[in-house]
Structures are given as structure tokens and as C-alpha cells.
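quick one, two chains, predict together pls
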Amino acid sequence: GAGVSQSPSNKVTEKGKDVELRCDPISGHTALYWYRQSLGQGLEFLIYFQGNSAPDKSGLPSDRFSAERTGESVSTLTIQRTQQEDSAVYLCASRPASGSKETQYFGPGTRLLVL
Amino acid sequence: AQSVAQPEDQVNVAEGNPLTVKCTYSVSGNPYLFWYVQYPNRGLQFLLKYITGDNLVKGSYGFEAEFNKSQTSFHLKKPSALVSDSALYFCAVRVNYKFYFGSGTKLNVKP
């Protein structure tokens, strides 16, 4: 079946512009995560959505970052007034349910470059 | 605080030789443990997990990992490396709904 998809695959923007990244999770997956992977670094947790519960936003690095999720479907991560240090690969992952022992399944990522 | 350590940034091994990629963790409670592999310009792919039961877990592509509770380790192993195994490997622990990742180990398998 279809995996997690993300768009765009690559985004080049100018400093100060806003960007919106999209994630389509696997159908039926109620849990959704956003991570940031900087060059040569591990994964940095950004935000977690689980069904209709309040999201865990504890990993968002600044108030320029926000994310939304429509029900148990698409999620968008928005970065306002981008800075060069925002350049990274942004990964989305989904998982079947909060109590599940299942792994999370990752999308291919969006590679963001801020000039 | 929860943490995962992958002490080696890079592991070099000759094709056909056994490989080990190390992972240790420090978490509260009983964690679920995972290994993922990342090929260039791709997302992470699941390799294997330990939830409970047998300490030796077998996963995809001939990989296995051994859970050692006393040493809080979960090392990834393969008896005979392939050139195609060259990639970036991440260890992760899950506590409740959160996943904590190591910094990754680059595996280079040379012909």
C-alpha cells in the first residue's frame, strides 16, 4: 500500500520568507510526528499529533514554527520568516495508534534550503 | 532525561566480515528499542525492534540485534556484511509515544 508521502521533496527559499511543508500519513494511522534532521545530525523531535488530542509541541524550536493536522489525515508544518539555520531535512512519520507497539513509518522528507 | 548514544560516528568493515553497530541508552521505565537505516536522500526505514521476550531480535536484510538490559545496550549485528549495507544507521528508544534517536552511525562496507 501507499507509504507516507511528503511534499515538496525539495524547497529553496529566501531568508525571511514563509514555507509550508506537507505530510500525508498512511491511511488509518492516528499518530503523526514531525522531525528535523540537520546535516550530520540525528533526528530532532518537533511535534506529535494523536487523533483529536492536543498535540505535543514541546520540540518546536521557536514560535516561527507551527503545525496543523486535519483530523487524522494531512499535516502541514509552517515555518515563518525562515532563517538560514532552518535549513535541514524535515521528516514526517506516522504510526497506527498511541498504544501500539508498532514502529513509525517515515516519509522521504522535504529538504529545505534557506538562502 | 532520556538519551540514546551511538558512540561511533563511522564503522568500516570489509565485505563478508561481521559487523556491529553499537547503541546504548538511558531511559526511565521499560523502553521499546528500534533500529532504522537511512539511504542517501531517503527517509528512515525500519529494520527491527525489541519489545519483550527473546533478547536476540532478527530483522530485515539479515540484521539482528541483541538487547542487554544490564548494560542498557542494543547493538546491531550482521554475520556477513554486504557493500549494499553501506548507509546511515539510527538506534531509537520509545518511551510512551516519544521516540529518542541516537546521532547515527555511518556504515561503510568495502569490497
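Chain B touches chain A through 20 residues (CB under 8 Å).
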